[in-house]
Amino acid sequence: MTATETVAAERASAPAPVRPRRRRKFLGAPWILLAPFLALFVLTVLAPVILAVAQSFTRINRAGMFGEKGVTSSFAGFDNFTQALTNSNFIQAIGRVLLFGVVQVPVMTVFATVLALLLESASARWPAFFRAAYFLPYGIPGVIATILWSFLYVPGLSPLVDAGKLVGLDIDFLGPNTVLWSIANIVTWTYTGYNMLIVIAQLKSIPSDIYEAARMDGASPLRIATSIQLPLIRPALVLSLVFSIIGTLQLFVEPQVLHTVSPAIVSEYTPNLSAYTNAFAYNDYGIASAEAVIIAVAAFVLSFGFLAWTNRKGRS
C-alpha cells in the first residue's frame, strides 16, 4: 500500500468525532412562571367581567311571588340597558358624579401638584417627613376615613358645626345641597397624597443640569416651576387625571357609609350604589350588570377621550 492509501485507510477506520449535543430550549418556561398570575387574573378579573357582560343580556324570571316555584333566566337583548338608561335615578346619579368629577378632580390635582412642587423645591425642610404625612391618609381605609369625617359632619358631635354657630353660621354638611361636597372633601383628603407622589416621581426624573442652567440664567423658583417643572411633569399629571376620572365613576364607599347619617343620600345616589342596590336589594342582577357595564364603558370613553385630547393638544 502506498502512503496515501495507508492514510486514507486510517482515517476511514478512525471513529467519527463526537459533536456536542445542543440543548433544546424549553419554550414553555415563561408560561410556567406566568401561570400563577394568569390564573389569578382570569379568576378575579376576566371571568367576573365576562359574567357581568353575559348577565347584562339576561332576564331573571321567578315563578311565584318570591320565586318559590322556580327561577329561570332568558335572553333579554338590550332591554336591561334600555331600562337602566331610562331610569331617572340612574341618570341623576351619572350627572351627580360627573359634576363631582368636574369640580373635585381639578381641585385635587392642583393641591397635589402644589404640594409636590413645594416638597421638591431646594428650600424645602424635612421633605421626607412631609411626604409621609401627606401620603398617610391614603393608607387609611375608605370606610374608616368616612367614619372619622362623619364625626366632623354630624350636628351635636362636630366641632366645626359648633364653631360655625359661634360666628352665626349654620353649616349643614349632610344637607341635600352640601353632602356631595362633603364627600368630595373626604376623597380629596384621601387621594391628594397619592397623586402628589405620582408628581414627585416625575419631578425626580428631571435632570439636575436643567435646574443648574436655569439658576445660572437667573431664573427664580417660580419661573423654574412654571417654565421647567410644569411642562416636564405633564405625563404624570395626565396619569393622575385618568386615575381620578376612573375613581370618580367608581364612587361608592363614602356615600354608602354616610347614607346612615345623611337622609339626602338615597340608595341610588351614585351609579355604583344604584348597581349595588339593584343586585342586593332588588335581586335584579340583569339590571345591575347592565349598569355596571355602562359605568365601565363610560370610564373607558372618558379616559380614552381625555388621553386623545391631551395628546392632540401636546402635538399642537
Describe the structure.
- The protein has about 325 residues and is mainly α.
- The chain has 14 helices and 2 strands.
- β1 and β2 (about 70-75) form a beta hairpin.
- α2 packs across α14, α4 packs across α8 (about 180-205) and α5 (about 125-135) runs antiparallel to α8 (about 180-205).
- The longest helix has about 30 residues, at about 90-120.
- The radius of gyration is 31 Å and the shape is globular.
- The termini are far apart.
- Keywords: Cell membrane, Membrane, Sugar transport, Transmembrane, Transmembrane helix, Transport.
- Belongs to the binding-protein-dependent transport system permease family.
- It is found in: Cell membrane.
Structural features:
14 helices, 316 residues, 2 domains, single chain, MetI-like fold, two-stranded antiparallel sheet
